[in-house]
Amino acid sequence: YGGKRFFGWATFGSGVVTLLIPSAAQISYTALIAIRVLLGMLQGVTWPAMFVIWSRWAPPLERQKLISLNFSGSTLGIILTYPTVNILCTIVENGWKYAFYLSGGVTIMWCLLWYYFVYETPSQHPRITKLEKMYIRNCLKKHLPPEE
């Protein structure tokens, strides 16, 4: 199993579990804590999985810039989520629930795009050119197994 699958399934699972948070909160504190622990476990594998993906895609001289850009997406998500949640909680009765529904739903939709656009290795990707594949392979040949 490669980074794409681990990251994709963990992120998809996080979206599904996020949708369950309002129900868990209404059931009991214990249910909410259990859901949050599960969410943490799912999200815990995403960062290492991303490093696996970048190790197969990012040439060493470009890796730092690409990884920084990639992980800044988490910060951007937070920046966009806080005002959105504030608006939901202000204008919708029980808006706090919809904050989780929106977040979980967007995460699940994002996963569909992820599975379409992301490939485990450059050699598997049908939409990049041979020249791009050669460039990546040549930059990473010391770091990858021969079949990649």
UniProtKB/TrEMBL annotation:
Subcellular location: Membrane
Listed transmembrane segments: 6-25, 37-57, 69-91, 98-117
Alphabetically ordered keywords of this record: Membrane, Transmembrane, Transmembrane helix
Limits of the Major facilitator superfamily (MFS) profile domain: 1-148
Membrane topology of this protein: Multi-pass membrane protein
Family annotation (Pfam families): MFS_1
Any single biological process term in GO: monoatomic anion transport
Any one GO cellular component localisation term in the record: membrane
Origin superkingdom: Eukaryota
Gene Ontology MF terms: transmembrane transporter activity
Stated name of the protein: Major facilitator superfamily (MFS) profile domain-containing protein
Organism the protein comes from: Candidula unifasciata
UniProt lineage: Eukaryota, Metazoa, Spiralia, Lophotrochozoa, Mollusca
